[in-house]
Amino acid sequence: MAKVLIENISYLNDPQCFSENYERMSAYRRAAPDNMKLQKDRMLSLGAGILLNKALDSCGLSGEYTIAYGKYGKPYFPQIKDQFRFSLSHSGTMAMCVFSSDGENRALSTGCDIQEKRKTDLKIAERFFHPSEYELIMKEADHEKRTDLFYRLWTLKESCLKAAGTGTLLSMKDFRIQLNADANPSVWKGDQRMPFTFEEIRDIPGYSASYCIAEEHDPKGI
Known about the structure:
Helix 2 runs antiparallel to helix 3 (39-58).
């Protein structure tokens, strides 16, 4: 089971508010906004850190943890790696955190992605998506609906890659998302359904957001 936090981080435009929240961050979370050149990016990075702290607090896991990265770059806390798994994303003015926590040391790997919907060159879909996904997009005659479909598939695929923890090892073309009218989306590689569960967040105007949960404790990727 996973929980999701999403927040508009525009309040960090206030310099005092930004400073106060920055001071509450651990050293590794301070390093993230410190490495950003643009203030907008620094705000988004800090906003994601704020949500991560809220997630830890809600699980009774507040504390100073060191950060580590898996073989393909997925972040985790070694001290509580089997109790708490998380994923972060941000775009526009929104930050997102999805997390799984289990006192039995069986927290599941998670992934999330949020994207502000903008005018998009759909050649990106032709280049990066599975052929069946690109075909589905191009069958949609309405331009606005076509753009919405592109972002739905993009966030679903990104969240799945993050949950799998494979980074860029796997191409987006190597698997396909199936959108189901009466059920949550599913992910397939060839004719095999892969062990990942999705949820879509469809009520944020101007944004598409999804999160993914591995159905196995230690996913082997897709």
